[in-house]
């Protein structure tokens, strides 16, 4: 289905990259209607229309030519009403991300390598599952009932009691916790014809301040495996638009798929500086029936999150760092992140040094390291 300029794109919910999606839609001549469930979420930003609360849902759906979501979690109330909307993305990927047992079964059915896991519903069953898998293990509910589901990492049998708050009669997933695994991620966009564009592989650095950058320490064989896995998953899911595939790579060379996430996230900020065509624009093209744009990889880039305490030091860098791009969010995230910095250039080591010695993150990093040592 082609959606032509002048049409209204309906966007559900809040995500820090919604602004980029709305800007991309406006650049192509579309109008944007934003639907949020609560008055507290009424930052309109780039939206032309703002619909607040369930009483506005019918008006929202009636106004929008297509409706899209840009997050991995939607409330049950919204999920129940998605069938009333023209939803190019479908709900298959949302269903998988809301239910860990469903996603694990999907991965197993399609011979996708995942971290070993077991299901449990009582403390005794958690203890048996953990003993069988081997410590440490991560324990969480199989259902994502909010955007930030609670998870407990259990180092030994003596910590099983920590899981007690999760025991409510529902099922839990117990899986091995890979302490030294390297988080990796590929952002990709699939169009209505099944064509797929994959963006460069990203890696997360293990440090107190979250950092994502283009992967530099992944060998060619693993890169090929990752690309093939992303393509395979894209072919198996009825989905259109941008999404992330998250991986874990161990020091021993084992590779696991960790999660599938609909929408565009960290990769959007990096795609602007590492390729010739950003994720948000590519996603709007896919959702409106346009052909995907071939990408070319250019600069190296690093993404780091910002807290409010770091802003004053950051501002001192504005006049001396031509290769730094700062994005400040309309509202802090649930984790307290108020924005991000993307640093781009040709030399990874040089960019890393710029960040590490800028002083922006040093006080927070030092405090975290001191707290860990106690």
Automatic annotation (TrEMBL):
Molecular function terms from GO: ATP binding; metal ion binding
Q: Which residues form the ATP-grasp domain?
A: 104-288
Task: Write down the Gene3D superfamilies for this protein, in alphabetical order.
Answer: 3.40.50.20, ATP-grasp fold, B domain (3.30.470.20)
Q: Which PROSITE patterns match?
A: ATP_GRASP (PS50975)
> Which Pfam families does the record associate with it?
ATP-grasp
- Keywords in UniProt for this one? ATP-binding, Nucleotide-binding
Q: Which GO terms describe its cellular component?
A: cytosol
InterPro entries, from UniProt? ATP-grasp (IPR011761), ATP-grasp_carboxylate-amine (IPR003135)
Q: What is this protein called?
A: ATP-grasp domain-containing protein
Give the source species.
Weissella kandleri
């Amino acid at each position: 289905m082609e959606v032509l300029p002048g049409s209204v794109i309906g966007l559900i919910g809040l995500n820090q990259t919604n602004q980029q999606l709305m800007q991309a839609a406006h650049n192509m001549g579309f109008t944007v209607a934003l639907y949020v469930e609560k008055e507290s979420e009424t930052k309109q930003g780039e939206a032309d229309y703002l619909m607040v609360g369930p009483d506005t849902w019918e008006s929202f759906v009636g106004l929008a030519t297509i409706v899209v979501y840009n997050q991995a979690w939607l409330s049950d109330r919204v999920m129940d009403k998605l069938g009333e909307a023209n939803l190019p993305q479908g709900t298959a990927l949302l269903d998988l991300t809301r239910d860990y047992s469903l996603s694990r079964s999907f991965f197993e059915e399609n011979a996708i390598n995942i971290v070993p896991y077991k299901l449990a519903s009582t403390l005794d069953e958690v203890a048996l599952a953990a003993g069988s898998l081997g410590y440490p293990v991560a324990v969480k509910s199989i259902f994502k009932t909010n955007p930030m589901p609670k998870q407990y990492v259990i180092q030994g049998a003596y910590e099983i009691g920590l899981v007690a708050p999760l025991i409510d009669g529902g099922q839990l997933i117990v899986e091995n916790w890979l302490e030294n695994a390297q988080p990796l991620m590929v952002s990709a966009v699939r169009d209505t014809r099944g064509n797929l564009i994959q963006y460069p592989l990203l890696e997360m650095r293990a440090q107190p301040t979250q950092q994502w950058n283009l992967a530099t320490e992944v060998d060619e064989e693993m890169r090929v495996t990752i690309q093939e896995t992303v393509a395979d998953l894209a072919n198996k899911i009825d989905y259109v638009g941008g999404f992330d595939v998250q991986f874990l790579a161990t020091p021993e060379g084992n590779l696991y798929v960790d999660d599938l996430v609909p929408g565009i996230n960290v990769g959007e900020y990096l795609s602007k500086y590492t390729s010739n065509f950003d994720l948000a624009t590519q996603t709007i093209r896919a959702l409106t029936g346009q052909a995907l744009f071939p990408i070319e990889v250019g600069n190296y880039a690093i993404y780091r999150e910002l807290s409010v305490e770091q802003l004053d030091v950051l501002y001192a860098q504005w006049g001396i760092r031509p290769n730094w791009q700062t994005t400040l969010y309309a509202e802090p995230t649930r984790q307290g992140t108020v924005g991000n910095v993307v640093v781009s250039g040709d030399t990874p080591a040089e960019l890393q040094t710029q960040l590490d010695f800028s002083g922006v993150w040093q006080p927070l990093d030092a405090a975290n390291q001191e707290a860990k040592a106690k």
